[in-house]
Amino acid sequence: MSETNPKLRAELAGIPTYKPGKPAAAGGPAAYKLSSNENPYPPLPGVLESVTAAAESFNRYPDMACTGLMNELSDRFGVPLSHLATGTGSVGVAQQLIQATAGPGDEVVYAWRSFEAYPIITQISGATSVRVPLTPGDVHDLDAMADAITDRTRLVFVCNPNNPTGTVVRREELERFLDRVPADCLVVLDEAYREFIRDPEVPDGVELYRERPNVCVLRTFSKAYGLAGLRVGFAIAHEPVAAALRKTAVPFGVSQLAQEAAIASLRAEDELLGRVGSLVCERTRVVDALRAQGWTVPESQANFVWLRLGERTVDFAAACEQAGVVVRPFAGEGVRVTVGEAEANDIFLKVTEAFH
Ligand code: PMP
Question: Is the ipTM of this complex over 0.90?
Fold first, then answer.
């Protein structure tokens, strides 16, 4: 890349990108998409109404400060406005966090395998990724992560539950880890799937943020709230961090549609969390069925399950696609499968039965 334009940063050379003009493979029009951890339920009528009303002002820029949404979040979580920042999905906020804290010569620590965006956004910033392998049980190795922190570490991501394994870290081990992190190192608790957690030992990151100035919580409207296509996420963090996020935000990055839909979703939270409850039941059904078929599946606290397939991964994903469900393969490792509508999950379970 720097060969064609010496002004482009060398770090960008190794970063994968989508191919312009080529839609992401979707397995044909009839396929169920279980590859992106989306919510299978369509938007609530009230949420659609709020979006339709907002559409009348398409000729205007959105409210840059996301005032209504910020106020709603402030009430909902009991945090001051100065401790909040919104962004274009939580991945957008994560990118801003790195941009605000790390650059060339700095290090960003995270577990691996984990959310695929971490290496990409770290590389974009020019900072260095320090990947700490998951335990053999596919859980964060928090002791090893604490050991990996140096005086160059600016940021640590803890993905809880972890994407793609669905595994969690519990209160005691997380507190012990946080005690070991230096005060000038920011710990980002990425809680994109928080609402799907049923394990009572998993702490709410917002409670940890209240006690610790170097903890920042990332949440999203994309999963439990079903607004993945509208791109809105947010951070709860102490003042200097939240202010840095507001400074690094793309101006007008959260559309008015997204803001209104997020507000309407927070107001319809009971109904949306009821849907989450149904998906959690489906998760239990899928995991139980897989185990009954003889698969070893880690305990998932998210809206997806992780199936280790090693060298058979790509063939398995192709068999799924053939059967009518699209899953997410990680070549040589395994597949991540979203818990979707019952019919989609049934198709997936037929493939696993045949494959075992
Ligand atoms: N964090 C994790 C762990 C995720 O899996 C995802 C989405 N796949 C995100 C953040 C980003 O979600 P969004 O940008 O849609 O809020």
Answer: yes
